[in-house]
Structure formats: structure tokens, C-alpha cells
Amino acid sequence: MALITKIREKSGIAAAAIAISLVLFLIGSDIFQGKSSLFGGSSQEVGNIAGESILIQDFQKKVEEATANYTAQTGKGPSEQEATMIRDQVWNQYVLDIAYKKEFDALGLKVSEEELIDMVQGNYIHPSVRQQFTNPQTGQFDKTFVIQFLKNLKTMPVQQQQAWANFEKSISQDRIRTKYENLMRLSNYVTQADAAKEYQAQTAKFSARFVYVPFFSVSDSTVKVTDAQLEDYLAKHKDQYKGTNTRSIQYATFPVIPTKQDTAEFYNQIKKLAKDLAVAPNDSAFAMLNSDVRTPYLLPYAEIPAAVKTQLATFQVGGIYGPFKEGLTYSIYKYGGVKKDSLFTMRASHILIAPANKSDSAKAQARQRAEAVLAQVKGGGSFETLAQMNGMDGTAQNGGDLGYFKNNGSMVKSFEKALFGFNGTGLMPGVIETDYGFHVVKVTDAKTNTSYKLAAINKTIAPSQATLDKVFTQADAFANANGTQGAFEVAMKKDKNIIMMRADRLLENASAVNNLSNAREIVRWAFDENTAVGDGSKKVFEQENQYIVAYLTGKTDKDNVTINDFREELTAMVRNQLKGEQISAKLSGIKGSLEQIAQKYGAGALVETVQDLTLSSGMLNTAGPDAIALGRIAGLRNGKRSAVFVGDNGVFIAEKTGSVVAPSLADYSIYKNQIQSMNLQRTSFYINEAIKENAKIEDKRYKFY
């Protein structure tokens, strides 16, 4: 009896112990790794905007909704890159709904029901509505389409009704944002004094002579910069060096290259496919089914690969040709003959000579120059070189090449008519006039309306699973044997075949690392709170055709800026500061003319002359657009010499030799409008940055994706 009583007394303790054990089992190691919100661990917060916390559950729900909409619209799920874009869109919507809305609400900005109706079906239709309800027959917006759609909206599936509600919300937010930005723009005012100052900067001119000793004339190795100096400079210029959360890594890459055996097996596969293609009853379907990269069965001449074009004339109907190699892809073709198209395709190059303006004299000069270029080509001159020298559009750098084009209105009518009226290839005999100017033209591929029936099997050579496994084993062994950056560096010294890459200052939400396009897993590892500087990944990251072992080499914290975050930039600035002091001390002790000062100073000192400079666009020869020097020289009296002073790029002693004063104007409105226009162009950007800064946005998505 005493024993049973004892068991009953202890049963409560046992039950509690079991319950605690179950809880610990269910949440696993998350508590001990700080991943659970229990006992003060980190929360499931994906971000914080203007003091409002965004939980991962809520964020992910919106991502899933956006992904479902994307899939419904495109008929396919998003790729990794597209998934990242969807998450960015959801995040930006949160920023708009929270940070921007606070600003809009503070000013009482809103879109009324009447205004929304007007945007959708009234007198001031929103551009997005116009785009969605364009009549395919006329290419014009048709309001009757909108009205008919709205009448049927209640009978549509719930998903479509929700999509329309979201659309109306988006155009409402766009309208409110436009109102807000317009208010900010209207608050911008340019004074008469500002306009007069801008006029003076653009118009007043001055000339000068000066001794210039550039910083680069003093060897960097002779100027020692200490950490204390860097700390001092950073403290004085902290507003210029904003902190960001970044990570820097080194990584060893183990490329997976097909072996000789893989290549032999690949060739055997190609040969078998060629035999099967030859007897396939539906050759185009068979080709599509067996291709790594699918291509259309009917190809115009312009879209046929260059290597195939060279042999196309020898093709016989029913014949198998290839393999043709392009990169790592091999292609075999079954030729099925030709088909005539209603449109013609051709390729040409041109040299455009555009008139300076629309006057008859300007056009006559442009024609004369074009005809002179045509004569040079006829005389044996290189068309491509002359295009690079004389062409006045974006094709000039490519020797005037226009690529392939059809007679479907993609070119200016007069240009298209002239070219498609030309037979064969070669230089067209005369210049062609269009609204853009005068063209010298060479047809490089004659017009043709022939399309070719080509059943193409395109196979990309790839390593076998055995090869993949072998390289992975090597990478895994390396990761286990070299778990720290120190061990990695020792391994590199021992084995010169190790391929090492570096990626500096990766951002939290980066998805690419150098040329590794889908490297999100590597970035997440680098930003994991359990990854310390010097740690190796101790795991192998799989990338396309290679395996990666990574090492964290550095980190920066936006809330704790150190000299190591900007060491190179700070060192350059402090070094130039010290060079400026050193050069100034030497120059200050030298007397005489500018030439004598430069001669006594020695190597590195230059005497230069500048004429008719303005403050807005002055260039000081070797020193370039040195704002400090321009200001100091402009402020001198004519004939006066300055003391030694340090500019942006070096040290100066300047003499102002003359100036032309800008006469006063009765009306400065032109310059006022210039400043106003520049300010308006920047308004939207500045508003966005100010709102985001005021909202103190914390983006923690990198912890979850």
C-alpha cells in the first residue's frame, strides 16, 4: 500500500517530465540555436516597416497568392529568378501599404469612389485600364469593353473578382502616389538669386596659369597611413560612409567536366538518334521529344545557324546532316525541303549621315557627305571601317550591321521599299533618303521568302552521374579536411590546381555570387548568425557544372561601421591628405615665377594654362574638373596669385590672368526653369529615399529565403 501511494505522489512529476520532453522533442534544437520565439529567442519576423512587424507566415501567404496568380497568367510555375522577383514585389507592396500610406494619411490624401469610377470608365481613364481594354481590331482603347466586363464581374469566378479588386487597389495607390509627388514638386521653388547664380556659373569666364602637383606624383609606398588616422578621418566624415550588412567570401570551385568516356557515350547517343530520326514517321515530333534545346521545324534563312548555312545548298530531302557544334550543344538535322513565305527576309548594313537640322542647306550637305562616303566604298574602301568613322546611329560601332529584317513595316517605308526592290547582294548604287537622313547601304544577305523544313535534335554534352559523383566526393573530402579559412589557404599553397574565387560585399538578399546565378544557398550560409568570419561551409554547394566549398572572409554591420568596412577608400583619402600636406610644405618654401617654382620643386610639378573656363563646366587640363581649384581660381582678382592650396586631385599655386564678367539680365527665367527641371527629375527618387529612411525599414527576408 505504501508503494502505491509513493507511485501516485510521483506520477505528477513524471507526467510533467514527459510533457517537457515532448515539447523539447517537437521544437528540437531550435531553442538552443536561438531559432524559436520561446524563452526570448528570435521571432519569425521577416521585416519591420515604420514600426510594424511583418511575420513570415503573413508574408509567405501573400507570396503564395502572388505565385498562384503568376502561374494562372503564364501557365507555368516561376523559375528561381522569377520567384525572387515575386517576393520583391510582395515586399515592395508592404512598403507601399505601410510606409507610404502613413505619409498619405498624414496629408489626408485618398481616392474617392467617384474618382475610382472615373479612372476605370469615366473621362480620365488610368493608363493601366487603357492597356488592359484595348480593342484588338483597332488597337485603340474601347470603353464598352470595360463596361461589359464590369457587368459580368459578379458572375465570374471568385479568383477573377479578387484579381480585379487587387487591380483597382493598385491603380488607386498609383493615383495617390501621383498626388503626393505632385504636392512635393509644387513645393519646390527656385529663387531669383539661385537662377542668377546658375547664369553666372554658365556664362562668366576666366583664364589662369598654375603650378599643379598631382597626388599621384608622390609614390604611395612613401606615405604610411595608420589605423589611428583612418579612425580619425572616419569619425569626421561618418555621414559619407553609411554602413550596410554585407559578407565577403572566398570559395573553391570544383568544375565537373565530361570525361573521355562521357564524350564517347554521348557520340554513340547522337549516332543512334540520327539513325532513329532518319526512319521516324513524324520526324519533327521525334526531334522535339529528343532535344535538350527545342527549335521550330520551319526556319527562315535568317534563323538558321551559320555553320548549317554553309552546307545548306548540299542538303537533300530526307537526308540527315551533322552533328554541328555550337558551344557544348551538338545538333543533327533531317532536311524536309522548303516552303515559300508571304514575307521576305534580308540582311544589310548601312552608313547613316543625318543632317544637322531640317533646313534644305543642311540636307544638301548631308547628301553630299553621304555620296562622298559611297564613292569611297566604290573605290575600294572598307564599308565597316567607313561605317565606324561616319555612321551617325547605334549601328556604327558594329560596322553598320542592321541584322536580319522582314518587309513587314519594321523599317522606315522608303528604306524598306528601296532595299526589298534590290536583287542580290552588294553595295546599292545610290544613297537612300529617309526621314532620318541619307543612307549608304550594302546588302549582305539577299532577300528571300524561303523557309526550310529542318527537324533538329539538339543535345548538350553533359557529365555522367558517375563523373558527377566522383567530383562531388573530391569536393566533400576537401570541405571536411579544410574547415577554416586558414586551412583553406594552406591547402591552396600545397595544391596549385585549386581554383579559388572571391566575392566581396555580398548583400543580404543577393541571389548571385559572381557568375553563379542561383547561389542563394551560399549567401544564406554566409549571413547565418552561426557562421563566423574564418569559417568554412563544411558542406558542398551544388551549382551548374561545378561544386563549391565556401569560406567567410569578412562581414560588415550597418549599425557598426568600422575602418575595415571602407579600408581601401579611407586609406586613399587619408593618403592623399598626407600627400597634400607634404607637397604643400615643399611648395610653400619656394619663391619666383610659376616656371621657377615648378623647376625648383622638381619631378611631378606641371605649369599649365587654361582659357575661358566656366564654373559649371571647367576642366583644368591634367587636373580635370577639380571643383575646389575652379572655385579658388574664379575667386581671385585678375593678375593676383593664390597661396598654396590643396584641391581634389593635387596641390596648386594659381594666377588668374583674365576674366569676362557675365552681364546682368532682366529676366533669368531660362535658368530658373533649368534648375526647376533638374529638381523635378530628381523629386520622385528623393521622395522614395526619404520615405524609406523615415520608415527605418528592416528587411530580414535573407533569413528565410
TrEMBL record:
The chain crosses the membrane at residues 12-32. Residues 346-445 form the PpiC domain. Keywords: Cell inner membrane, Cell membrane, Chaperone, Isomerase, Membrane, Rotamase, Transmembrane, Transmembrane helix. It is a single-pass type II membrane protein. PROSITE patterns: PPIC_PPIASE_2 (PS50198). Pfam families: Rotamase_3, SurA_N_2. Its main location: membrane. It is found in: Cell inner membrane. GO terms for molecular function: isomerase activity. Belongs to the PpiD chaperone family. This is Periplasmic chaperone PpiD. It comes from Aquirufa avitistagni.
